[in-house]
Every structure is written in structure tokens, then in C-alpha cells.
Amino acid sequence: MASWEEGHWESSVDAGVPAAARRSGAYFRYIPDLVDGAGLAIDGMLSRRVGRVERSIRALNGPGAEGLAGIARFLLRSEAIASSRIEGIAPSAQQVALAELGQSETVRGVTEQARLVANNMTVVSEATTRLVLADQVSVTDVVELHRSLLPDEPRHHGLRTVQNWIGTSSWSPIGASFVPPDPERVGGLVTDLIAYLNGAAHSPLIQAAVVHAQFETIHPFTDGNGRVGRALIHTVLARRGLTDRAVVPVSLVLATLRDRYIEGLTSFRHASATGSAEANAAVNRWLHTFVEATAIAVEQSETLADRIEAMRAEWGDRLTAFRRDSGLRPVPRADSAVSRLLRNLPEAPVLTAATLARILGVSHQAAFAALDELHHAGILTRRRIDRGATAYLARDILDLVTVSERALASTQFDTRVSPPRAGAPVLPQE
Questions:
Q1: Buried b (16+ CB within 10 A) or exposed e, 231-258
Q2: pLDDT higher than 80, residue 329
Q3: 150, 121, 142: which is closest to 191 by C-alpha?
Q4: Tally of CB atoms within 10 A around 145
Q5: Between 3.30.70.1110, 2.60.120.230, 1.10.3290.10, 1.20.1070.10, what CATH number should domain 34-300 receive?
Q6: Which 3 state secondary structure label does DSSP give 9?
Q7: Is 0.70 surpassed by the pTM of this model?
Q8: How many whole angstroms from its chain centre is CA 166?
Q9: Mean pLDDT of the chain
Q10: pLDDT tens digit string along 174-227?
Q11: Which of 119, 141, 114, 117 has its CA nearest to residue 130?
């Protein structure tokens, strides 16, 4: 049975911090139920809602999913900020895209922050992919995922061996908003959680919600729990085949609905008898929060997918007009470099001829000709990245990322109704 357990804190600080932070005394930490094999009654209304949302997610993974996935990686780039030293607004999508290009070519004028984020996007993507493809996820796999998210913070690597807490001061858990279980229980709780993650007792969406809430409740690392917990949402949905290609930005919606998110997690941390009506009702309240956040994320992704398709149509019109004015056949062959480039732009909005030649498997000359044609058609812009080297940018895509980020940061998910929260990127300049 889940319960609150009294602990005693003996302060080792006698000066240099406020008196309240130097206190010794009692505090309460939470001991959650095990989740593997536990019974959970999902209320009927929620169950039907889950069915509708899961069908909507699967529909997103149809035609055009590659473009949606390409843009989503920029929307989720904040998940890849691996160092707690990075503060403030995440680097712009353009800076990160240029930094990604800089992983294979020399690119000047990119901030160190953007390089770090781009590098960690690659690392986190590879680490998460390993979890998705693993026949059975292990505790070691999750520890390695955490290590990849905080590569320069070795003091935080591994499951914690000390008590941690959320809120109040850095010196004492007394008065904290939440204190997770004592370190002696962490190994067993994480083992139980991973066993549940490897199963299929519940639908993918319910499983992702339980995994996330239980992970955040255990809080098994001394730092980076939020980042790992968010990555596990995407891991569960992908392992269960719900998000084959497109990534749904559930974590960004939960961040915007922060008060509801915290209320939901607080409800999940009940102290009722295992399997009781009260325990089920408490967990269902959290599940409602998670499922509704996912529904909003799906709606935003559907809007984004529609905008990508509209953008593709506009690009086609621009290219047709340019080719007609240039005396060329209005529509290039489907297998031509320029047609293939046009299809790849949402996934690779910043390119050079060398990079495109590698992606498409064509000559440098053919790649340059395709990029130059889209530049003259008004689809790509040029930017000098090094002496004698030029990159081509699909600013329409990069601007769409920014507009979508701002919408996801609005409590009404529409900046015309509610402004985005602090820290959202500014509107693109014309």
C-alpha cells in the first residue's frame, strides 16, 4: 500500500544559509505502490477518450509523417539540453540547424549553446532509439539514457544513494513540496517500473502516463529526472508502435499546463489501499490530465502537419512558376534531385551541396544545381558559413518551428487568445 513515511533530517549546516535551511527535524517522504502487475480500473469515459486519442496519434504516422518528425525534433530540442549550466531561452531552431550542419562541415557564427544542444539532440536520439529497439529494456539502459542526457555531470550519474526532494531549499527537505522515497528503496522501485514498461498490461497511452508519473515519483537520480521522465513518454509510445515516425509533443503541453500537471502528479501520489476505489480514482485523475495533454498535443501536431502540406503546395507553385519562366518543363521529374530535395526540406532545413549530395547519393554538381534552383525559385535563402562555403536555408520551415513553439507555450495554445509564457522564442522577422 502506498503511504507517507516519516523521516528525520539532521542538518550538517551551521552557517551561511537562512536559519530555516539549517533546521533539523521531521519530514514526510512518499512510498509508492508497485506498478508491475497491479490492478487498475480505468473509468469508462477515460477509456473511450484514450481510444480516440490513440487512433488520432496513429493517423499522424501516415503520409507526411517524416516531415512532421523532422520539425518535431526542433520543437523538442529543449529536451536535449544536457547541462544544468545552460539557462535562459533555448537556442533558435536556425542556430540549432546550423549547429547540426556543423557536425559534418565547418560552420562559423554558431553559438556554443547551439552546438551543445545539437550534439545532445543526436546523443539523446541515439540513446532513445536503443531503448525503443531493445527486446527488453533494463535498469542499466535507463541509467545509460540518463548519462547521455547529462554527459558532463558525472556526480549525478547512477541511481541515487542519498535522499532528494523537490522545492524548498537545497539544504533541507523540511517543508519541501514533495519528498520521494528513501534511497534504499530506489533500486527495487525502478526494477519494478522497468518490468511494467516491458509489458503491455495497459494501452500505450495509459502505460506512458503511469511510467512517467511513477518515474517522477521515484525520482531515482539526483538531477535530470524531468528530462529522463519525458524521454520515457516517447520511449513507451514508440515501443508500443503508437508513434512509429511522428513525435507528439506531450511534454511541451504538460510544461505549459504546469499547474494541472502538478495537480495530476499529486493525485497520483495517493495513500489509499492498493486497488481500492479511492486509489483508482486518484490515479484516474492523473490519467485524465495526461490524456487531455496528449489530445492537445495531437491537435497541435495535426495543425502543424496541415501547415507543412500547405507549405509544400506553395513551394510547388513557386517552383512551377520559376521553371515556366525559365523555359523548363513546369514540373521536374519525381526522381530528380530537385524533387527529392523538396520532399526532404522539412527534415533538413539547412543544407550545403556536400551534405545534400551525401543524403541523396548524387554528384556535388547535381546537388548544387538543385539547391540553386530552389534558391532562385524563392524557396531557399543563402548564408555564408565559411570562407568559400554557402549553406541554403528553408526559412519557411524554421519560422514554422518558431510559430509552433509559441503556440505550444500559450495556455490556450493560440497566441491570438493567450500570449506565450516567458522564455518562448520571439516571432520571426520578415
A1: bbbbbbbbbbebbebbbbbbbbbbbbbe
A2: yes
A3: 142
A4: 22
A5: 1.10.3290.10
A6: strand
A7: yes
A8: 22
A9: 90
A10: 989 999 999 999 999 999 999 999 999 999 999 999 999 999 999 999 998 988
A11: 141
